[in-house]
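Hi F.,

I've been meaning to write this up properly since the lab meeting, where we talked about keeping a consistent format for the predictions we share between groups. The idea is simple: the sequence comes first, exactly as it goes in, then the structure tokens exactly as they come out, then a line or two of notes. No screenshots and no reformatting. I'm using this chain as the first example so we have something concrete to point to.
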Amino acid sequence: MSQTFRRSSIAVICCLLLAGSDHARAQSGAAAHAQPQAATGSIWGNVTDNHGSPLGGAKVTLLSEDTKVSTGASTDGTGQYRFEDLKPGTYDVTFDAQGLVPKTQRVKVKAGHKTTANQRLKPPPEPDTPSK
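Output, unedited:
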């Protein structure tokens, strides 16, 4: 075999190897940037009183319509709460704070979405006083 042919063959093999590694690198780079579709969603929001002031420490209960499983949380000092990694479906969110009328809100969770459920709680109506 001639020395020129051998050098040409080695050069061609090197080019093929480099081209193959660039292709593999491009594929792995594309895979690294591809974001898988989220299989879960979340519910978050704020709880306020009838004046719009944040209610820290309000109780928020989540009930799955599908599984009938209930989970609870409390709002933080800014009145915010959050439930994450929820399976898609319908949930009843109940808001409760001492001295205020509890409320329930039905919420649909979709995969990959953040659903907002804000609630304003009001005091109970004042009892009617009999006229004298």
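Notes:
Residues 41-120 form a domain with the Immunoglobulin-like fold (CATH 2.60.40.10).
Residues 14-18, 21-32 have pLDDT under 50 and may be disordered.

If this format works for you, I'll send the rest the same way.

G.
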